[in-house]
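Re: the request from the purification team.
They wanted to know what the chain is likely to look like in 3D before they choose a buffer screen. I agreed to run a prediction and write the result into the notebook, where they can find it.
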Amino acid sequence: MKPIAFLFAAASLVVPAIVAVAPSAAVAAAPTADISGTWTASFDSQVGQQTYTYAFEVDGETLAGHSKSNFGESELKGTVDGDKVTFVENLDYQGQMLAITYSGQIVSADEITFSRDVAGQGGEQFTATRQK
């Protein structure tokens, strides 16, 4: 009987050690998606219908690019981390510089959902699609 009791005691020490190690192996970071290319979006805003074309260039986690809309053009700078995209568009709107902050999630190779905040005053949610 003593050998069986010893076996159960040893097993009870090993199982928690395996369980404690397993979660750290599963926490590997998701690879950063390559969204380089041309994307388009159209949405309603407080100043009317907006149509955008975004040209993204991704190098590692760094996003650079250009946006063009019916309200102007702007250079973009931001990051891509796994399926998360963030960038800022500094738009000259009727002589006033507006910082428009974008937060997005990559849904697929051809679709990103975005929320944007126009100069801290709220904004829109929309979906951008990759142009092929």
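For the purification team: The chain has one domain: 37-130.
Please add any questions underneath this entry.
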